[in-house]
Each structure stands twice: as C-alpha cells, then as structure tokens.
Specification:
The complex is a heterodimer of chains A (152) and B (287).
Chain A: H1 9-19, H2 23-35, E1 62-68, E2 74-80, H3 86-99, H4 104-108, H5 114-119, H6 125-151
Helix pairs in contact in A: 1-3, 2-3, 3-6
Chain B: E1 15-16, H1 18-23, E2 30-34, H2 41-44, E3 51-52, H3 70-79, E4 87-91, H4 97-108, E5 114-117, H5 120-126, E6 154-155, H6 157-165, E7 169-172, H7 176-180, E8 204-205, H8 222-232, E9 241-244, H9 250-261, E10 267-270, H10 273-277
Parallel strand pairs in B: 1-5, 2-3, 2-4, 4-5, 6-10, 7-8, 7-9, 9-10
Helix pairs in contact in B: 4-9
The chains are: A mainly alpha (152), B alpha/beta (287).
Amino acid sequence: MTQQQDLPAGLAAIVDDFAFCDRTERAELLIEFADKFKDVPASIATRPFPEENHVQRCESDAYVWAEDLPDGTVKFHFAVENPQGLSAKAWGVILDETLSGQPLEQVAAVPCDVVFKIYGKDLSMGKGQGLMAMADLVSYEAKRRLRERAAN
Amino acid sequence: MTSIAERGYANPGVLVDTDWVAAHLKDANVRVVESNEDQLLYPSGHIPGAVQVDWAADLNDQVRRDYLDKAGFDRLMSKIGVTKDTSVVFYGDKNNWWATYAYWIFQLFGHTNARVMDGGRLKWEKEGRELTRDVPSYPATSYSAPERDDKTIRAFKDQVLAHQAAKKAMVDVRSPQEYSGERTHMAEYPQEGVLRGGHIPGAKSVPWARAANPEDGTFKSADELRAIYETEQGLKPTDDVIAYCRIGERSSHTWFVLTNLLGYKNVRNYDGSWTEWGNSVGVPVEK
C-alpha cells in the first residue's frame, strides 16, 4: 500500500485530512474540492481536446495537461467533460493543488492507489480505475520529463 | 423525445417522466430514491425530498459478496420511510444505470410498487429543475419483506453454466473491448481481480447504454430497442435470457429494458458476472 511519508507534503496532508472522515464528511470535503474546479484555460487547450491528453479508462471523460514552468516544474490542468463527474473534478483539484510546482521526482513517484486513501473503500471499480488513470497520467508527464532531461 | 405512453413499451407504467416527479414531490405516498455510481452526486444536490440508496453501503452485504438479506432490506425500508404502499421512484446518474440496479434489487424483495424516472439525473438537471443539498428524514416505518427471491430474476454461476451448455440466450452488456477480451484491467490493476478476458461462449454483445438516448438519458422507444435486441441480435420475447456484465450493475439496466420495456417474461441477471466467471476454474471462455 501507499506509504504516506513518501507522498509530497501537500498530498500527505490531504490524505491525513481524510483518514478519520466518515462517509458524509468525506463526501462534503470532496464536494468542496470539486466546487473549486476550473477547466483548462484556453491558453493551454481548446475543444476539441487532443486524444493524447484524454485519460483512458475514465468514464467522466477527463483530460490532463502539464504546462512547463520556468523553474523546471509543471503546472497541471484538467478538463472533465461529464458534468456529473464530480469525483474526477475533485481529484483534478487535489492533484493540481498538491502536485503542481512540486519536484518532478516526487510527482513521478506518486502511486495511483493513493486514490483509495482519499475516496475510501466504497469507490466503484469503474470510478477507481478512472481516478487512478488520472493520477497515472500526471505521474507519466513527470516521468517523461525526467527521462528527457536525463537523456540530454 | 416522445412521451413515455407513445413509445410502445410493454409496461409503460414502470416509467415516470420528470414532470410527474416534479408534481409529486410532496406526495406522501411517493418516495423518490436517488442511486448513483458517484458517491458525491447526491450530497452535492438532489431532487427535493429524495433519499439516497447507495449500491455499496446500502444494497450490498458488507462482508459476503451478496446483497442485503430480508432483515437488512426491512431496515433499509424503515430508514427511508417506505411502506409496502409507498410508490418508490428511482433515478440516478449514467442513464439510470444505478437506479435500475437498485430497482432490480428491490424486486428481489417483491417491492413491485416501483418506477424509474426516465432520463434520470441528467434530464432533471438539463431541464434546470430544482436541486437541494438538504437531506430529508422521514418517520421510520415497519416493513416486512418476503425472503429474498433469488430464483426468478437472478442467476448464479451453475445456472449460467447449464444455460450456456443448453445454448440459451445470453447478453453480454459490457464494452466491446471487454467482450473481446482485449481489456480485462488485469494488466494494470491486479486488484480488479479478473484473471481471464473474453466472454461466455454464445453470449451476444450489446453494450448496455445502447438502450438509452445519450443526450438526455431517456430510454429508446420500443421499436428502436427491438431493432437492437431482436432484428440485430435475434432475441425473442419468449427466450429464456441471462444478462451479465462485470458485477451485475450494467446488466440490471438491460434486464430492466428487456423485462419492462420489451415485455420479455424470462430474463435473469447474473450478478456474479465477469468478476466471478473470469476467475472461475474450468468454465468456458471465448475470445
């Protein structure tokens, strides 16, 4: 299972926040995150979004972009095409708030199953796969950059 | 979309439209029940007065892989203030996928006074109707269900084996990729727990969502449904049919369509579905 101490500090803090939530509190906290969701800015991407940014296995039609920042880190942007995709929106906000601007090594090492520490065991199989796939795509963007930099 | 009454369904009374629900929000004999896959949707806003019945927390046994038993169902009905005279109206996300799942489980306990709101959450939201975050509470009721009926509309693995051997009709309602075995999820996520991909030999592939209109989640007309299940796939209303998916939720949608909208008399949902079949030793699998 995910070792909390290995997570970036912001993500570890959120995992801590959710650790003792009951079902209702968990939903309320996640809805607060979802309410903060902002679509990818037009300066990064406009519809129709490219397939390469599409999260496979996500039934909420989520998209992920990684914008390179001058300090070598990245800012993550998301779109969620399903208006009822609240879980995907909340997850996009959490990933952005905790992983944007963080060292790529840390982002690359985030295990996708951290989703279950935040969303709990009631996550359906389909939903779990979609959210894990979003995390996978975020860490893939970090890994890809690390590989390219190592090669240059 | 034409009205429900004009769509030629075998049992049109099993559906109500959003206007009907809006007119019955304060009807004490009606309990509106929201069932979703996404656990955040109900608390983020629901039809005023609606209660939530959650597939994982409320409808499944928390230890064994099975549904709640009679005592659990009685408690659930009491908690949401339902008597045997209460007309329960289900609605939810994803073309009413989880609403029909809850509907199907209610039928295992004989609560036939039940309907589904055509179009579900999507249509209600698109029409700009009221949503609230207020969670209602209703006086507890005394409800005594019959023992769960696991024979009439539910199928178990051994029955599916015999059904398959007899070459009777089966509908695999998963995606084409799951049907072909191209996707099992196993490679990426061993915890998803399916060791073999493919389908039960002889099963016809009809992804469940083909029965719904994607723009508003309403059910297609009987003629459109017959074109899919009968003209294209060769099913007949007299067939003995088993539907399955991964865990029995998507196939409950197809069960609802074949049974209530097309009037098939003998349809069962194999809720063990591919997560059981694809892990079973020695069962026939086709790719």
